[in-house]
Amino acid sequence: MRIIVNGAEAEIAEGSSVGDLVRQRVDDRRRVAVARNGEVVPRAEWDSTPLAERDTVEVLAPVAGG
Amino acid sequence: MDDSLVLGGEKFESRLLLGTGGVPSLEVLEQVIAASGTQVVTIALRRVEAAAGAPLVAVLEKAGVRLLPNTAGCMTAREAVLTAQLAREAFETNWVKLEVIGDDRTLLPDPVELLDAAERLVADGFTVLPYTNDDPITARRLADVGCAAVMPAGAPIGSGLGIRNPHNIALIREAVTVPVVLDAGIGTASDAALAMELGCDAVLIASAVTRARSPELMAEAMRDAVRAGRAAYRAGRIPRRWHAEASTPIAGFPQL
C-alpha cells in the first residue's frame, strides 16, 4: 500500500504497523517520535498501530537546535 | 548563601542555558557544554533523514545535562502543541521551550498563537518555557496561564544585536514572579552580563557561542559574564548621578 512518510510517497506491505515502519527507517529506536495523520503515536503503541492506505506519517529524531 | 536558579521546580547552579543551534560538530558541543558550565541544553526534532539522532543524544547524556526540547520553526499553536507532544515522547520529558514564530524574516514570536499553545500545553501537563517578545503584558499573560518561566527576546534570534530594549526587560522582571530567561539576541559577554544586571534569572545562549570564532572560549566568557552580572544585580548598583560625587573625603584636605 501507498503511504506518505516524511513528505515522500512510500510503499509498505499490507498489514504493516507503525513499529514496522520505524524499524525500516532507523537503527536506533530510542529518542524517535512518530506522528500519524497529525496525532502522536506513543512508543508503547507503535507495534499495535496498523498503517492504512494514504496515511501520512512523520518519523522524527533529535537534531541540534534552538 | 544559596543562589540557585529554580526552574520548573528544579534547582540549578548554572544560570546559563545553552542552545545547540549552529554548533559545528559534536566535539565542539562537548567543549562548549563543559566550558559554559550549563546544566540545561536545548534540542529539536526533525525528520530522521535530516537528524543527527543517537550520537547527538549520547553527547548530551554523557554531559549529564537536562534536555530542553524546543518547538523551533512552528508557526501555529496546533503545530507547536503537536511538536511538544512528539518531543515528550522522544525525550521523555514534559519540559518544552515553546517557540511559535510569526515570520521567517524576524523569527519573532506570534503572541496570539504563543499564548494559545502555552495554555493548551500547561493543561496537558507540560512545564512550558515560552520564547516571547520583550513585551511585559504578553509576559504577564503567559505567566498567568501557568508557564514556568518567560523567555523574552533581547533581539531577533541569531542577530547578536544584544538587548534592544533594556527597559522592557526590567519591566518584565517586575511584571511576573516566575523566572525570566533572556532568550535570543545575545552577541557577546557584556550582553549576557547586562541581562543579569537587569534582573533576569538566567540567559539562554546559542549562536553567540556556537558561531563564535572560538566557541569554547566564548562559552567560558559567557559563563563568567552570567556570574558577574548576577553578582552585580544582587550587590545592588549605585544610583546614576548627573555630576561627580567625590569618593575621597573633603574633610581634612590640607592648606597647600
In short:
The complex is a heterodimer of chains A (66) and B (256). Chain A has 66 residues and is mainly beta.
Keywords:
heterodimer, A: 66 residues, mainly beta, 5-stranded mixed β-sheet, 1 helix, B: 256 residues, 5-stranded parallel β-sheet, 10 strands
What does this structure look like?
The complex is a heterodimer of chains A (about 70) and B (about 260). By secondary structure, chain A is mainly beta. Chain A has one helix at about 20-25, and strands at about 1-5, 10, 35, 40, 55-65. Chain A contains one helix and five strands. In chain A, strand 1 and strand 2 (about 10) form a beta hairpin. Chain A starts with a strand and ends with a strand. The mean pLDDT of chain A is about 95. Chain B has about 260 residues and is of the alpha/beta class. The longest helix of chain B is centred in the C-terminal third of the chain and has 21 residues, at about 215-235. Chain B is globular and about 80 Å long. The mean pLDDT of chain B is about 95. The interface of A and B includes residues 59 and 63 of A. Strand 5 (about 55-65) of chain A pairs antiparallel with strand 4 (about 40-45) of chain B.
How is the secondary structure organized here?
The complex is a heterodimer of chains A (66) and B (256).
Chain A: E1 2-5, E2 8-11, H1 18-25, E3 33-36, E4 39-41, E5 56-63
Parallel strand pairs in A: 1-5
Antiparallel strand pairs in A: 1-2, 3-4, 3-5
Chain B: E1 5-7, E2 10-12, E3 16-18, H1 26-36, E4 40-47, H2 54-63, E5 66-69, H3 77-91, E6 95-98, H4 111-123, E7 127-132, H5 136-144, E8 151-152, H6 166-175, E9 181-183, H7 189-197, E10 202-205, H8 207-210, H9 215-235
Parallel strand pairs in B: 3-4, 3-10, 4-5, 6-7, 7-8, 9-10
Antiparallel strand pairs in B: 1-2
